[in-house]
Design goal:
There is one protein chain. The chain is α+β, with helices and mostly antiparallel strands. The chain has a domain of 142 residues: Umud Fragment, subunit A, CATH 2.10.109.10. Helix content is 20%, strand content 28%. Strands 1, 2, 3, 4, 9, 10, 11 and 12 form an eight-stranded antiparallel β-sheet that branches. A four-stranded antiparallel β-sheet has the order 7-6-5-8, with no helix packed on it.
Length: 206
């Protein structure tokens, strides 16, 4: 007598995945990929933000007509670690009388120089020009008249800074020179508004 034997049901090589398990797997993969992107981005952004560049928001009219209220700038922090502050650089620094505040001004006088302001004009006295040099700022300030009577001798590591809007600026004429450690960096790029997008260069003086 013969018997008909049904073939054994072949088991699949893998367990079937339910729709719920598949969704959970996709969520886990998405979260892991997001975490990797965030960690990688922070590893790049944080050093750049704290050691290379940082944003700065202009408040007030002391740097008009070159910088206006509510403009956003990118400040270059690395240049002064590798090189020197130059005359004409626009710098961001901690206000000497309250380091919690940040000011933006233009560097006029360098360490070791004597700065004289008289009759609305600025004179620079240094080892190269002991007789004094009339500072020509016409490249960035038309019809400049600098108020005040100043005769300031700068020590090593000190800088004399002025706002471009000489009639409305709290600067070295009031609070004196600033020290090298107070300087955060120089204005590098104007990022906003887009209509005034600009990369800043140090002016040359004739």
């Amino acid at each position: 007598m013969s018997f008909l034997q049904q073939p054994e049901e072949k088991k699949p090589d893998f367990e079937p995945v339910t729709a719920k398990e598949e969704l959970i797997g996709q969520i886990k993969e998405f979260v892991w990929e997001t975490v990797k992107v965030v960690v990688f981005s922070l590893a790049i952004i944080i050093p750049i933000r704290y050691f290379l560049i940082q944003p700065f928001y202009v408040k007030g009219a002391s740097m008009e007509p070159n910088f206006f209220d509510h403009e956003y700038l990118v400040i270059d922090e690395i240049s002064y670690r590798l090189g020197e502050v130059k005359r004409g650089d626009v710098v961001v620094f901690k206000y000497p009388n309250d380091p919690r505040q940040y000011f933006i001004k233009r560097v006029i006088g360098l360490p070791g120089e004597t700065i004289q302001i008289k009759d609305g004009k600025i004179f620079i006295i240094n080892k190269d020009r002991p007789e004094g040099l009339l500072l020509n700022e016409s490249g960035y300030l038309p019809n400049t008249h600098t108020q005040g009577q100043v005769d300031a001798e700068l020590a090593p590591g000190e800088y004399y800074v002025l706002g471009d809007n000489r009639a409305s600026s709290l600067d070295s004429r009031v609070f004196g020179p600033i020290s090298d450690p107070a300087i955060i960096g120089r204005a590098w790029v104007r990022g906003w508004p887009f209509s005034r997008l600009q990369v800043f260069n140090t002016p040359s003086y004739q």
